[in-house]
Specification:
21% strand, 6 helices, globular
């Protein structure tokens, strides 16, 4: 059902985009990267969070982690992850297949600037074994997303930090 809502949404808005369904699970960033043969960072991870009374989706690169201070500032309050049942009820997608397309409930979408590290990213497509290849800009355009900076800065290895001084 959820994969079908994504297919219908993309057919209407972006018929050129092709959904890839794999034999392997892509329910986690690591599994999706392995199934698709891409870097983990290229997986566009969709987080369902509550900020005060609002529920929003935040899409980041697969290896990014939310920075609490940045997220509070950008989203207007402390984000709290939703439980699996609430995620599925609001998005229509199971955890591991959540994406900003074909939503059961219209939700605000925020794309983290970390996605711009890649020319193409792979968000899920409504099922735990489906994805779609898209440029970050196109994904934001198709979902009406707002660009934000809510992820932690990448950690610099000690050897690199020492070399810079």
């Amino acid at each position: 059902m959820s994969l079908e809502s994504v297919r219908a949404d993309l057919a209407a808005k972006a018929p050129d985009l092709v959904i890839t369904v794999t034999d392997k699970s892509s329910a986690t960033v690591a599994l999706a990267a392995e199934a698709l043969g891409v870097e983990p960072g290229q997986i566009a991870k969709t987080l369902s969070v509550r900020v005060g009374e609002r529920v929003v989706l935040v899409v980041t690169k697969g290896t990014a982690r939310l920075d609490n201070r940045k997220a509070r500032e950008a989203l207007g309050g402390k984000p709290r992850m939703l439980g699996a049942e609430e995620v599925e009820a609001l998005t229509g997608h199971p955890v591991g297949g959540v994406c900003p397309f074909g939503l059961a409930t219209p939700l605000p979408v925020y794309c983290d600037v970390s996605l711009q590290d890649y020319a193409e990213v792979w968000p899920a497509a409504g099922a735990t074994n489906s994805s779609v290849r898209v440029t970050p800009m196109r994904m934001a355009e198709l979902t009406g997303a707002i660009w934000v900076d809510v992820s932690q800065a990448p950690e610099v290895p000690d050897s690199a930090a020492g070399a810079a001084s």
